[in-house]
Known about the structure:
- It is a single chain.
- This protein has two domains: 6-133 and 271-316, Rossmann fold (3-Layer(aba) Sandwich); 135-268, Rossmann fold, CATH 3.40.50.2300.
- The chain is elongated.
- The protein has helices spanning 2-24, 42-57, 76-84, 101-109, 135-149, 166-179, 199-212, 224-235, 251-259, 271-286, and strands spanning 31-35, 61-64, 89-92, 113-117, 128-131, 154-160, 187-194, 216-221, 244-247, 265-268, 297-299, 305-307, 313-315, 320-323.
- Helix content is 41%, strand content 19%.
- The protein starts with a helix and ends in a 9-residue tail after the last strand.
- The longest helix has 23 residues, at 2-24.
- The chain has a six-stranded parallel β-sheet, with helices on both faces. A four-stranded parallel β-sheet has the order 7-6-8-9, sandwiched between helices.
- The chain contains ten helices and 14 strands.
- By secondary structure, it is α/β, with parallel strands linked by helices.
- Bound molecules: alpha-L-rhamnopyranose.
- Alpha-L-rhamnopyranose binds next to helix 8.
Amino acid sequence: MLRKVQMLALPMLLATLMAGVGAAELKKDLKIAFLPKQINNPYEVIADEGGMTAIKEFGGIGKVVGPSDAGASSQVQYVNTLITQKQHAIVIAANDANAVVPYLKKAQAAGIKVVTFDSDTSPDGRQIFVNQADSEGIGRAQLQLLAKLIGGEGEFAILSATPNATNQNTWIKWMQEELKKPEYAKMKLVKVAYGNDDDQKSFVETQGLLQAYPKLKGIISPTTVGISAAARYLSTSPRKGQVAITGLGTPNQMRAFVKNGTVKAFQLWDPGQLGYLAAYAAAHLAAGNITGKEGESFDAGKLGKRTVGKNGEVVLGPPTTFDASNIDNFNF
Ligand code: RAM
């Protein structure tokens, strides 16, 4: 009996020790600043909290600063301030692939490590991009899910975030690629609308889509702000039940709309884990343990060992599909 317990305990002990080694590689007091797309977006808030949890674990000094709108250059002034403050690393969900790059380069020249997460910049802006999941997979899966919900037939629209958001634009590109397959011959993309990750604008854009396209069968909103505003609009519209809304949403924001039948299924990953992983990547860069080259690996606390892939990309993992059968198992 005792031997059995010991045998079971040994791997656990080893795992604990190995997890500890990763944190020990990180010197204390690393200053790491999170710069989300916008500070009042619930998704970004969860992601930033995940980052702060990780930073606490390895004894760093974390903070979150950022704009209240997701405009292309809204983050520039924050990057400049973080450079002046001599942060060790900046973790940014970029509102534009290029607008912040000259400033991020300035940061790098000053010895500050830069990690993008959620929404990337051009590769010269950062050392590592922590991606929520494989971008092609996210895009294709969104279209596949909508096709299932509308029986593979009918007009649909996309309600996106801002027109310049790197993450949404990449996913939309892959949706359009997927749409070329013969099995979608009866589906037609009629419009890509932009709610700018602003709740009110997304709500009004949804109203506009329903008015402009009386035969509309579906909306894909690959943004947590967009999908929740679209669902709120549809929930009190006479078109409820005729139009399928899907996309990327947080279970907590979407729960009521799944329960009242407005939304059948949508997807996401855990934004908290995304921020957590990004913080570890930033810390290991700042500690000099990694440089962002393909093949390097680092310890990411409870997420285990992670490896840097092509183009400095680190991937969190596949998304989950939420529906009435599982949504109550998730709380974020
Ligand atoms: C919004 C933001 C974010 C995106 C999620 C899915 O909160 O646009 O960048 O990743 O949606």
